[in-house]
């Protein structure tokens, strides 16, 4: 699928694509599916953190003192959209162990396909960059809603990154129109949504496949 979206970055590293292909297989077990998602999130994290601000930090090696580069990772907040975002968040936390962590609990109303909020906890005091995480950017409604929640707490779009594994063009369009200044990262821009708002070919229900539920 051609990427015509200015704010969408498709991460095509062969390792990411290889692991995503393994995940797409409907016979992949839940533990392996979880492990692959965590590994992909870590690999995507390498790209997503490329523009994080750095500071100079004094460090003493066994031979000398020097000023060296560090990320202020405690100023980064990783915010999974529950529940499917949790495993990707774990992969990012492997890279940024002292990042803050928030949670946005949304479920999709089956009739309206719109998100319904049931829990929000966002670390506001120290955080500067917010990485929102949800593996499936499908209709885009949850993604827009989650960014709206951050905006209402004073966090501006240019300080928010959205990390997904698979995106549908319909969802990216909705999201980009609502929040054109939020950078979106994904491993794949798939073909379309089906009539139940599932991404095709997609992965199926990511939450169910992660946690072995139905
Ligand atoms: N949520 C999922 O888990 N899968 C989809 O395809 C769309 C939304």
TrEMBL record:
Keywords: Allosteric enzyme, Glycosyltransferase, GTP-binding, Magnesium, Nucleotide-binding, Transferase. It catalyses: UMP + diphosphate = 5-phospho-alpha-D-ribose 1-diphosphate + uracil. Pfam families: UPRTase. It is an enzyme of class 2 (transferase). Residues 11-213 form the Phosphoribosyltransferase domain. InterPro entries: PRTase-like (IPR029057), PRTase_dom (IPR000836), Upp_B (IPR034332), UPRT (IPR005765), UPRTase/APRTase (IPR050054). Belongs to the UPRTase family. Catalyzes the conversion of uracil and 5-phospho-alpha-D-ribose 1-diphosphate (PRPP) to UMP and diphosphate. This is Uracil phosphoribosyltransferase. It comes from Caedimonas varicaedens. The lineage of its organism: Bacteria, Pseudomonadati, Pseudomonadota, Alphaproteobacteria, Holosporales. The gene is upp.
């Amino acid at each position: 699928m051609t990427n015509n979206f200015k704010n969408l970055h498709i991460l095509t590293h062969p390792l990411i694509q290889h692991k995503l292909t393994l995940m797409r297989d409907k016979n992949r077990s839940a533990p392996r599916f979880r492990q692959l998602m965590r590994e992909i999130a870590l690999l995507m994290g390498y790209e997503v953190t490329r523009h994080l601000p750095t500071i100079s930090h004094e460090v003493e090696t066994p031979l000398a003192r020097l000023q060296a580069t560090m990320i202020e990772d405690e100023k980064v907040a990783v915010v999974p959209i529950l529940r499917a975002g949790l495993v990707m968040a774990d992969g990012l936390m492997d890279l940024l162990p002292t990042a803050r962590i928030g949670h946005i609990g949304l479920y999709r109303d089956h009739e309206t396909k719109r998100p319904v909020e049931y829990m929000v906890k966002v670390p506001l005091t120290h955080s500067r960059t917010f990485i929102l995480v949800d593996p499936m950017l499908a209709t885009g409604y949850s993604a827009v809603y989650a960014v709206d929640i951050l905006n209402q707490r004073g966090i501006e779009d240019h300080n928010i990154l959205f990390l997904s594994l698979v995106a549908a063009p319909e969802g990216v369009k909705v999201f980009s129109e609502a929040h054109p200044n939020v950078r979106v990262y994904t491993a794949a821009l798939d073909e379309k949504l089906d009539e139940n708002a599932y991404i095709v070919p997609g992965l199926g229900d990511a939450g169910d496949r992660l946690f072995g539920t139905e």
